[in-house]
UniProtKB/TrEMBL annotation, chain A:
SUPFAM superfamilies: ALDH-like. It comes from the Bacteria. Signal peptide: none annotated. InterPro entries: Ald_DH/histidinol_DH, Ald_DH_N, Aldehyde_DH_dom. The keyword Transferase does not apply. Pfam families: Aldedh (PF00171). The keyword Nucleus does not apply. The lineage of its organism: Bacteria, Bacillati, Actinomycetota, Actinomycetes, Propionibacteriales. This is Aldehyde dehydrogenase family protein.
Automatic annotation (TrEMBL), chain B:
The lineage of its organism: Bacteria, Bacillati, Actinomycetota, Actinomycetes, Propionibacteriales. One of its GO terms (molecular function) is oxidoreductase activity, acting on the aldehyde or oxo group of donors, NAD or NADP as acceptor. The active site is at E256. Pfam families: Aldedh. Coiled coil: none annotated. It comes from Nocardioides oleivorans. InterPro entries: Ald_DH/histidinol_DH (IPR016161), Ald_DH_C (IPR016163), Ald_DH_CS_GLU (IPR029510), Ald_DH_N (IPR016162), Aldehyde_DH_dom (IPR015590). Transmembrane segments: none annotated. Residues 31-475 form the Aldehyde dehydrogenase domain. This is Aldehyde dehydrogenase family protein. SUPFAM superfamilies: ALDH-like. Keywords: Oxidoreductase.
C-alpha cells in the first residue's frame, strides 16, 4: 500500500506568525493543468490592517538596526533559500507549469537578487547621500532614511517577482505588507517560512494571499502606510484608483510597470523610491 | 514716553521699482493679454492696489504649454548643457544687478520686511541660478541620467514668491526642461519682473512662461495632458488634490507641503542663542514659512527661564512698514490669511491655552498680527496640530529626550525640526530619531542652494535644492 502524503495548509504570514485569515476563508489554487494543488488563505480587510499594525510595530527596531546587520539578515534569507531550492523549484513547476530548467533559473535569480540587495544595505547611504558645501559656516549632511511601512502588490512570478519588490524595500529599513500573486500564491507563503527562520524580525515582511481588488484599496487608503508599490497591478483602472487613494496621506507611489524584465539587474530606483532624504545642519564655530 | 533708543524711520526708496498699472501673461517670450478676466494685487501693508493682473484661462494655459512644448522640442532640449548653463548664469547675474529692485518689489507685493527680501530672498535666488547653472553641463555626474522630462508645470505660493520661483525654474531649466509657472494670486509681481529678466537675458522664447491666476489656473496647468512634470509648493490640502489629479497619468510629481515643526530646547542649550533661534524659527517672514518652528518643545526645568527671555526678546521686535530697514516683522500677506491666523488663535484661547502677544502698535491700514505665543499647550490642541502659517508660537514642555521625540514626531507632517543642546551626541541621536526632512541643530531656518529640502509623511515628496533636486527633473538613470 502506498503512503498517503501529508498535504500542506498554506496560511498568511503576519507579524512572524502564520495565521489563517480572520475571515475563515480560503481559495483553491490549481496547478497549470487545472487540478487542485492546495488551498490558500483568502485575506480580508482585517488581515490587511493586522499586517499594517505588525509592520508598524516592527519598523522602529528594523530601521534602527545597523545597515551591516540588515545586510546580514537579508543575506541569511538567501542562505536559507539556497538550502531549500528543490522545494521551491518543485512548487513553481507544479503551480506554474514551467520546465525544470526555467524553475531553476528563477530560483537562482531570486537567491542572487537577495545577495545583491543585501550588499546594498551599507552602501546606499554613500551612493545617494552627500555632504553639502553650503555658503556659510555650517556642517551639513544629507542621508537617506526609510519611508516607513510600505504596501507592495507583488507581480506574477511569485518567487523572483516577490523577492525583487520586497528586498529593496526592507534592505533600506522599511517594513512591508505584501499582497502575493493571486494566481500563484503558494511559493510566497513558503518564502515566508524561509524568512521566518532567517533572523528577519517578525513583522518586517508580512505576506497576504488573496485578491488584489479586495485587499489593495484598504492598504492604499490606510493612514499608517507610507508608501505603496503597485508593480503587480495589471488592471489600469484599479491602479489609478489605488494611486488616487494613496493621496489621502501622500504615500510614496511606485506605479505599475508591466514590462519589467525580472531577470535583468535592477537599478537603484526600487530602493530610492521608498527612501527620504534627511538633511542635518549644525553651525561650525568654536 | 519715547525711548532715547528708539530707531528713526529708515525707509527704503520705492523709486527703484516701476509698477505698471496692468500686467498680461508671459507666453512664448512676450507679454500677451489673457483671454480671462483680471484681478488686483494689493500691498498688504497699506491695502493699496498695486496693479491689475490677468487671470489665465484654460485657453491661455494651453497656449503657454504649447509654447513650452515648442521651445522644448526645437530649442532647449537640443541645446548643449554648456549653452543652457550660460543662459542660467546670465539670469543669475541680472538678478544680482537688479537685486534692489527685486527686493523692494517683493516687499511691496508680499509684505515681508525689506531686510529679509534684500538679505535673504534675493541673494539665495541668485545663488540658486548660479548653482544649477553649473549643473547643466555636468548632469552625467549626478547619477540621475541626463534626459529631461519635457514641459514642467509649476505652481508656487505667496510666502517666498521669488525664492520659490528660483527653486522651481533653475533646476528645471538646467536639466533641459521648459516651464509654465504660476505665481500665487496675491504675489505675482516679482515673477512678472523675472519674465522681463528672461527677455533681458535673451532666453529663447517659450523656455519660461509665466501665467498668473488663482486656483483654477493652477488646476489647468496641473491637469494639462501635455505637461510631463508637476511641481507644487503650497498647502497639504492642495497637494493631496494634485496627487489625486495626476493618478493614473505618466506625470512625475514633486510636492513641498505644510509643516508643524518642533523646535526642541534642552536644558543645557545656550539659552540666549536658543531664544534667537526660536524667534527666527517662528517670526521670520511673519511665520509664513512651511518649515517654521511653530511648536516650541522646551525642557521643563528651563521652561520658565526660556519663556521670560523669549517674551523679553519678542517685546523688542519691530513690527510695521515692510520697507523700513529696521522692521523685523512685516504685514500678513492677505486679509484671508489674517482671518485664518485670528481664527486659529481664538480657537487656541477657547481650548484653554494662555495667549501672550508682544506689546506693539500695529498700523491702522493693512493686515497685521502681533507676534504671539501660547503657553499651556497640549498635543491635542488644534494650535499644536494645525499649521497656522503666521507669527504664532505654541509652547509645550517635555522631561526626557524620548518624550521630546515622541511629541515632535506626533503629527502627520515631517518637514523640519530644530534641536538646541550643547551635547553633540544628543544632537546626533535626536537628529536620527526625528522624522523630518531637515533638522537644524543649534540653528534654524537656514537655506542654501546646495542643500536638499523637502518633507517626510504628509509634508510632501521629492527634494528641492542640491544634487538631489535634479532628480525631480530627469528621467532617472534607471528608467
Amino acid at each position: 500500500m502506498s503512503r498517503i502524503d501529508v498535504r500542506k495548509t498554506y496560511k498568511l504570514y503576519i507579524g512572524g506568525q502564520f495565521p489563517r485569515s480572520e475571515s475563515g476563508r480560503s481559495y483553491v489554487v490549481n496547478d497549470a493543468k487545472g487540478t487542485l494543488l492546495a488551498n490558500a488563505s483568502l485575506a480580508s480587510r482585517k488581515d490587511a490592517r493586522d499586517a499594517v499594525v505588525a509592520a508598524r510595530a516592527a519598523f522602529g527596531g528594523w530601521s534602527g538596526r545597523t545597515a551591516y546587520n540588515r545586510a546580514q539578515v537579508v543575506y541569511r534569507v538567501a542562505e536559507v533559500l539556497e538550502g531549500r531550492r528543490e522545494q521551491f523549484e518543485a512548487e513553481m513547476r507544479a503551480s506554474e507549469g514551467i520546465s525544470a530548467a526555467r524553475a531553476r533559473t528563477y530560483v537562482d535569480a531570486a537567491i542572487d537578487r537577495l545577495v545583491w540587495y543585501a550588499g546594498w544595505a551599507d552602501k546606499i547611504t554613500q551612493v545617494v547621500g552627500n555632504a553639502n558645501p553650503v555658503a556659510g559656516p555650517y556642517f551639513n549632511l544629507s542621508t537617506p532614511e526609510p519611508s516607513g511601512v510600505i504596501a507592495v502588490v507583488a507581480p506574477a512570478g511569485p518567487l523572483l517577482g516577490l523577492v525583487s519588490v520586497v528586498a529593496p524595500a526592507i534592505v533600506t529599513g522599511n517594513t512591508v505588507v505584501v499582497i502575493a500573486s493571486e494566481q500563484h500564491p503558494l511559493t510566497s507563503i513558503t518564502l515566508g517560512e524561509v524568512m521566518a527562520t532567517s533572523d528577519l524580525p517578525g513583522g518586517v515582511v508580512n505576506v497576504l494571499t488573496g485578491t488584489q481588488a479586495e485587499i489593495a484599496p484598504w492598504l492604499a487608503s490606510h493612514m499608517d502606510v507610507n508608501g505603496i508599490d503597485l508593480t503587480g497591478i495589471t488592471d489600469e483602472a484599479l491602479a489609478t484608483e489605488l494611486e488616487a487613494a494613496a493621496a489621502d496621506n501622500l504615500k510614496r507611489v511606485r506605479r505599475p510597470a508591466p514590462d519589467t524584465d525580472w531577470l535583468a539587474e535592477p537599478g537603484l530606483d526600487r530602493m530610492t523610491q521608498f527612501l527620504e532624504t534627511k538633511t542635518v545642519w549644525h553651525p561650525i564655530g568654536v | 514716553m519715547t525711548s532715547p533708543f528708539e530707531y528713526a524711520p529708515a525707509p527704503e526708496s520705492r523709486a527703484v521699482v516701476d509698477i505698471k498699472p496692468s500686467y498680461g501673461l508671459f507666453v512664448n517670450g512676450e507679454f500677451v493679454d489673457g483671454s480671462g478676466t483680471s484681478f488686483k494685487t494689493v500691498n498688504p501693508a497699506t491695502e493699496e492696489v498695486l496693479a491689475e493682473v490677468a487671470e489665465a484661462s484654460d485657453a491661455d494655459v494651453d497656449e503657454a504649454v504649447k509654447a513650452a512644448r515648442r521651445a522644448y522640442t526645437r530649442v532647449w532640449s537640443r541645446m548643449s548643457g554648456a549653452e543652457r548653463a550660460k543662459y542660467l548664469y546670465r539670469i543669475a547675474r541680472i538678478i544680482q544687478e537688479r537685486g534692489r529692485e527685486l527686493a523692494v518689489l517683493e516687499s511691496i507685493d508680499n509684505g515681508k520686511p525689506i531686510k529679509e527680501s534684500r538679505d535673504v530672498d534675493v541673494p539665495i535666488v541668485a545663488a540658486h541660478f548660479f548653482y544649477y547653472a553649473g549643473w547643466a553641463d555636468k548632469l552625467k555626474y549626478a547619477g540621475y541620467g541626463d534626459t529631461p522630462l519635457g514641459v514642467a508645470g509649476q505652481v508656487i505660493p505667496w510666502n517666498f514668491p521669488l525664492l520659490m520661483l528660483a527653486w522651481k525654474i533653475a533646476p528645471a531649466l538646467a536639466c533641459g526642461n521648459t516651464v509654465v509657472l504660476k505665481p500665487a494670486e496675491t504675489t505675482p509681481l516679482t515673477a512678472l519682473l523675472f519674465a522681463e529678466i528672461c527677455q533681458q537675458a535673451d532666453l529663447p522664447p517659450g523656455v519660461v512662461n509665466i501665467v498668473t491666476g488663482a486656483g483654477a489656473t493652477g488646476r489647468a496647468i496641473v491637469s494639462h495632458p501635455d505637461v510631463d512634470k508637476v511641481a507644487f509648493t503650497g498647502s497639504t490640502e492642495v497637494g493631496k488634490a494634485i496627487a489625486r489629479a495626476v493618478a493614473g497619468t505618466d506625470k512625475k510629481v514633486t510636492l513641498e507641503l505644510g509643516g508643524k515643526a518642533a523646535n526642541i530646547v534642552f536644558d543645557d542649550a545656550p539659552l540666549d542663542q536658543a531664544v534667537e533661534g526660536i524667534v527666527n524659527g517662528i517670526f521670520f517672514n511673519q511665520g509664513h514659512v512651511c518649515c517654521a518652528g511653530s511648536r516650541l518643545l522646551v525642557q521643563e526645568s528651563v521652561a520658565d527661564e526660556v519663556m521670560s527671555r523669549l517674551k523679553r526678546r519678542m517685546a523688542t521686535l519691530r513690527v510695521g512698514d515692510p520697507l523700513d530697514k529696521n522692521t523685523d516683522v512685516g504685514a500678513i500677506n492677505s486679509a484671508e490669511q489674517l482671518a485664518k491666523i485670528r481664527e486659529l488663535s481664538e480657537i487656541g484661547e477657547a481650548e484653554g491655552a494662555e495667549r501672550w502677544s508682544a506689546p506693539c502698535e500695529l498700523p491702522s491700514n493693512g493686515y497685521w498680527f502681533a507676534p504671539t505665543v501660547f503657553t499651556g499647550v497640549t498635543q491635542a490642541h488644534r494650535i499644536a496640530r494645525e499649521e497656522i502659517f503666521g507669527p504664532v508660537l505654541s509652547v509645550l514642555t517635555f522631561r526626557t529626550p524620548s518624550e521630546a521625540v515622541e511629541k515632535a514626531n506626533n503629527t502627520p507632517f515631517g518637514l523640519s525640526a530644530g534641536v538646541w543642546t550643547d551635547k553633540g551626541s544628543r544632537i546626533l541621536s535626536m537628529a536620527n530619531r526625528l522624522r523630518a526632512g531637515v533638522i537644524w541643530a543649534n540653528t534654524f531656518n537656514k537655506f542654501d542652494p546646495t542643500s536638499p529640502f523637502g518633507g517626510y509623511k504628509e509634508s510632501g515628496y521629492g527634494r528641492e535644492g542640491g544634487r538631489h533636486g535634479l532628480e525631480a527633473y530627469l528621467k532617472g538613470a534607471d528608467n
